[in-house]
Design goal:
By secondary structure, the chain is mainly beta. Helices cover 8% and strands 27% of the residues. It contains one helix and eleven strands.
């Protein structure tokens, strides 16, 4: 096969050319194989996830919600000042990069810009 390229994000071998870019059908990543800087940056991953104050977050940290957050599809609200223990960092495509469980709400994803490290 003439295509020996792999996706720089997920390693999928089923990539295909789309104009001047290559596309991965599994994760949707697009890149130019001639542009080594972009390929290296994509292979490094999402990088550091920081809270609203600029502190680096890690798996297992405790955070505090800094403002009231409405929950889509529900009438409940996560109040500002709510402490969340044992967060898990995820690569959310919609900007929600923290997965956690909140008492009274359940499992939920949060954006790091609305929390601060406790």
């Amino acid at each position: 096969m003439e295509n020996d390229l792999k996706c720089p994000e997920c390693g999928c071998e089923h990539v295909y050319p789309d104009g001047s870019l290559w596309t991965c059908p599994e994760c949707g990543c697009e890149w130019n194989p001639k542009d080594n800087a972009a390929g290296a940056a994509a292979a490094d991953g999402p990088g550091e996830i920081r809270d609203a104050n600029g502190n680096v977050l890690a798996d297992g940290d405790s955070v505090t919600v800094i403002k009231d957050l409405k929950i889509k599809g529900a009438s409940s609200v996560i109040k500002g000042g709510t402490k969340v223990k044992g967060i898990r960092l995820v690569d959310g495509t919609d900007g929600h990069n923290i997965a956690c469980k909140i008492a009274g709400v359940g499992a939920i994803n949060l954006k790091s810009e609305f929390v601060r490290k406790a």
